[in-house]
């Protein structure tokens, strides 16, 4: 498969990579760039485990081709904490006990992060709507919503 | 309460930091130098005689390092937690859609997937057995051995036939539940590494000690040369108690001498992982006019699919729970679980108990309606209390929470469903 050169901003750093033109964004992030927080649950955009933020909008990275992020800014969970300092969402997920098996957690936190980028004071309904593309099979939804509310109020 | 360090305190979940940072290592996240990627060739038909598996074209594909079939298994080729009836790689008959026929290790996962298409499987299709009824016909082909009955069990307490004669009210109903998939959000995955005579397996599992035994037997290695390390596991709910990738990655690593990773895709996970047993429950309950239950009879039949998995444990649990948390002096439970060519059913949150609850609670409501009693009152009247015995004659000496639970539920229902005084 032919490779294409793309440049984009990953977690606040400009990078240039050569990537197979048919590679999924999910695979480029996990395999080529070692962003292992991006999880594959279903491979068809249903579960939200592979959610990342592209230009401020959440996307399921399993349904996006890598070259599509050329010129974009991409945020993964790795980009949220700086120098060991946690994002308030990371803190609130721990505080509320919103983490069980942890496989949906990266996508959940990023969906909440994208919501805050647009709307720093969302209502509970707005939070639920923003998180509706992320499945938690351990059924910890109540605490997940609580965690986002705690972060909102911080 | 004394001043304890932990008890009564809210403690932080030990692994929550690594999980909110995204650094927790799930099996698919584990990487080794020189690692190969594995893939599994699976059957597309539910029932067939396997004639031949030709792997020559797959082996010739550049980038393919190893292709294995049952002939390459150095140890035992039957696995299973209770009954060893599932092949690591099919050697005689295909018994379900998704049975593993061959495994590949290649330099990239794309090459491994490509190689699967080059494996030529020759088989003679058989009429599949897809219902309990068909499985139990005398002339039916047997999925395993000489009978399609996995287990037939009976639980008898008192004399139900005599007790039914004394009953004023009898209700009889049939309840059927369906398959349920666990749908753990992380598909099964693992990495095996064979080094200095030691086989190490990192995998998404609920059952590392069982996995170690099965890997050891498959490879004909002593257990002290096999290490199974549970990776951070993305949900299981019973569905990761069975073997998934463990034996396949171990075989491939053993033959190639290189680390091998398999990450199952959602489609294969859905096909192959165990399911909740569908159970048909024919239930008859008899009571006096005042609501006192005297007799309870249930006939359970269930489809355990192609392999036993935890089926025998589910039989026992469904039987011992199907009369519910109620004091019933006369009980007769008959259960038959059968093999078919359907998906394998196994452990699933409650081992048959949730299915049984649908039947025993349905019966309580039906009985209450027929007698004209409140569904709450009839439950409280018959609820087990300290000192009572279960159908298996276990005396409940210390505590049983059902009365308290019902009372709390009534209290709560007043808040959320009914207005005060409207509970009927």
TrEMBL record, chain A:
<dbReference type="Pfam" id="PF01799">
    <property type="entry name" value="Fer2_2"/>
</dbReference>
<dbReference type="GO" id="GO:0043885">
    <property type="term" value="F:anaerobic carbon-monoxide dehydrogenase activity"/>
</dbReference>
<dbReference type="InterPro" id="IPR036010">
    <property type="entry name" value="2Fe-2S_ferredoxin-like_sf"/>
</dbReference>
<keyword id="KW-0408">Iron</keyword>
<dbReference type="InterPro" id="IPR001041">
    <property type="entry name" value="2Fe-2S_ferredoxin-type"/>
</dbReference>
<dbReference type="InterPro" id="IPR006058">
    <property type="entry name" value="2Fe2S_fd_BS"/>
</dbReference>
<dbReference type="InterPro" id="IPR036884">
    <property type="entry name" value="2Fe-2S-bd_dom_sf"/>
</dbReference>
<keyword id="KW-0001">2Fe-2S</keyword>
<dbReference type="Pfam" id="PF00111">
    <property type="entry name" value="Fer2"/>
</dbReference>
<dbReference type="InterPro" id="IPR012675">
    <property type="entry name" value="Beta-grasp_dom_sf"/>
</dbReference>
<keyword id="KW-0411">Iron-sulfur</keyword>
<dbReference type="InterPro" id="IPR002888">
    <property type="entry name" value="2Fe-2S-bd"/>
</dbReference>
<dbReference type="InterPro" id="IPR051452">
    <property type="entry name" value="Diverse_Oxidoreductases"/>
</dbReference>
<feature type="domain" description="2Fe-2S ferredoxin-type">
    <location>
        <begin position="4"/>
        <end position="80"/>
    </location>
</feature>
<protein>
    <submittedName>
        <fullName>Carbon-monoxide dehydrogenase small subunit</fullName>
        <ecNumber>1.2.7.4</ecNumber>
    </submittedName>
</protein>
<keyword id="KW-0479">Metal-binding</keyword>
<keyword id="KW-0560">Oxidoreductase</keyword>
TrEMBL record, chain B:
<dbReference type="InterPro" id="IPR016208">
    <property type="entry name" value="Ald_Oxase/xanthine_DH-like"/>
</dbReference>
<dbReference type="InterPro" id="IPR037165">
    <property type="entry name" value="AldOxase/xan_DH_Mopterin-bd_sf"/>
</dbReference>
<feature type="domain" description="Aldehyde oxidase/xanthine dehydrogenase a/b hammerhead">
    <location>
        <begin position="21"/>
        <end position="127"/>
    </location>
</feature>
<dbReference type="InterPro" id="IPR008274">
    <property type="entry name" value="AldOxase/xan_DH_MoCoBD1"/>
</dbReference>
<dbReference type="InterPro" id="IPR000674">
    <property type="entry name" value="Ald_Oxase/Xan_DH_a/b"/>
</dbReference>
<dbReference type="Pfam" id="PF01315">
    <property type="entry name" value="Ald_Xan_dh_C"/>
</dbReference>
<dbReference type="Pfam" id="PF02738">
    <property type="entry name" value="MoCoBD_1"/>
</dbReference>
<dbReference type="InterPro" id="IPR036856">
    <property type="entry name" value="Ald_Oxase/Xan_DH_a/b_sf"/>
</dbReference>
<protein>
    <submittedName>
        <fullName>CO/xanthine dehydrogenase Mo-binding subunit</fullName>
    </submittedName>
</protein>
